[in-house]
């Protein structure tokens, strides 16, 4: 990932041009250039681009629904800030085109305090993750991350997980791509879902088949429209029913979203690349254990259909 140094290069070129008009005429001795002549030459080398980048994101929504379909909170305003530190480890024009390391921290805060743990409060959760992104031939991307989910209300013990994702970034049609992907999620310590009966629960896995259709248009300003869609297929014991049995294997849920992103180009690049987005996401839940887990979170609400509306700001340096 590379930052835009367009304005910095323009400033250097203007400085060199002004120097060529204002500097005195250099004199040479024995055919050699004087130091003044060397200094008045325009700079030919481009500035070194940063190998460290920062991504900040602030998301506001009407509900906290996890990618695993858990309806954690659907009351009040949900505030979810994210910070990511990126390190460009390797870049080339060969088959291995890019290697990036990332460290991230994500938080979930809520205006409606639910009594889901012994220490209820507005700070619901904090997650940490670290991983690598490898790009092959510029179109194939492999993401590997190790994550931890920590409840600030002490509703559950910290869960750690391994997340692997393989994406193909197609570019057959200019301005449009499907971006199909496969993702595998494995619980490492403790459960990443509602643990209804700890005596019979087991660590398990799920995998995802998805795609992120994306199109860039101008109406009249630039807008990127996405339709991220995925289906979740889980192992027998990833979710758990009230009686302690596994929630069942196979198809668990499907989700799709309509999302639009607009770059805030009026903000100078020196302050980073800003963008604003808004989206509406729909979930259909099928797994019996997932439905029971959501009943434990929201008693009396057996819901196969969930909707989340959210908006936010993204800044990249």
Structure description:
By secondary structure, the chain is mainly beta. The chain has two domains: 1-49, no CATH class; 50-316, monomeric porin ompg (Porin, Beta Barrel). Helix content is 10%, strand content 49%. It contains three helices and 17 strands. Strands 1-4-5-6-7-8-10-11-14-15-16-17 form a twelve-stranded antiparallel beta barrel. Strands 2-3 form a two-stranded antiparallel ribbon. A hairpin with a 7-residue loop joins strand 7 (140-151) and strand 8. The longest helix has 17 residues, at 6-22. Residues 1-31 have low confidence and may be disordered.
Individual helix count: 3
Q: Any idea what the CATH architecture of the largest domain is?
A: Beta Barrel
Q: State Rg.
A: 25 Å
The helix/strand class is mainly beta
Regarding CATH, which class of the largest domain?
Mainly Beta
Order of adjacent strands in the largest pleated sheet? 1-4-5-6-7-8-10-11-14-15-16-17
Roughly how many Å apart are the termini? Answer: 10 Å
For the residues shown, what is the average pLDDT?
87
Note the run of SSEs as H and E: HHEEEEEEEEEEEEEEEEHE
Instruction: Classify the fold: give the CATH topology of the largest domain.
Output: Porin
User: What's the total number of strands?
Assistant: 17
From the structure provided, what is the oligomeric state, counting identical versus distinct chains? Answer: single chain
Percentage of helical residues? 10-25%
Overall body shape: globular
Low-confidence stretches: 1-31
Biggest sheet overview: 12 strands, antiparallel, barrel
In terms of DSSP E residues, the strand content is over 45%
CATH homologous superfamily descriptor of the largest domain: monomeric porin ompg
The domain count comes to 2
């Amino acid at each position: 990932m590379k930052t835009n140094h367009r304005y910095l290069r323009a400033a250097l070129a203007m400085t060199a041009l002004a120097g060529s008009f204002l500097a005195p005429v250099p004199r040479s001795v024995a055919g050699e250039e004087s130091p003044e002549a060397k200094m008045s030459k325009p700079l030919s080398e481009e500035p070194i681009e940063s190998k460290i980048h920062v991504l900040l994101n602030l998301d506001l929504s009407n509900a906290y629904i996890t990618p695993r379909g858990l309806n954690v909170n659907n009351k009040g305003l949900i505030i979810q800030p994210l910070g990511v530190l990126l390190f460009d480890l390797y870049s080339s024009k060969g088959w291995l085109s890019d290697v990036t390391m990332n460290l991230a921290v994500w938080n979930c805060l809520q205006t409606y305090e639910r009594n889901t743990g012994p220490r209820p409060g507005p700070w619901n959760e904090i997650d940490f993750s670290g991983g690598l992104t490898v790009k092959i031939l510029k179109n194939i991307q492999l993401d590997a991350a190790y994550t931890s989910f920590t409840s600030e209300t002490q509703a559950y013990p910290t869960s750690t997980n391994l997340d692997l994702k393989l994406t193909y970034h197609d570019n057959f049609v200019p301005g449009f791509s499907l971006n199909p992907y496969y993702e595998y999620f494995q619980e490492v310590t403790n459960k990443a879902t509602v643990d209804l009966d700890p005596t019979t629960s087991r660590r398990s896995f799920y995998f995802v088949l998805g795609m992120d259709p994306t199109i860039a248009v101008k109406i009249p300003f630039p807008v990127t429209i996405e339709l991220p869609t995925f289906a979740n297929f889980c192992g027998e014991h990833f979710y758990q029913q009230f009686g302690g049995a596994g929630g069942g294997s196979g198809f668990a849920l499907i989700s799709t979203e309509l999302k639009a992103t607009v770059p805030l180009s009026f903000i100078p690049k020196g302050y980073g690349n800003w963008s604003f987005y808004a989206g509406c996401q729909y979930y259909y839940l099928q797994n019996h254990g997932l439905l029971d887990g959501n009943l434990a979170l929201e008693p009396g609400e057996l819901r196969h259909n969930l909707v989340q509306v959210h908006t936010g700001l993204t800044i990249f340096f």
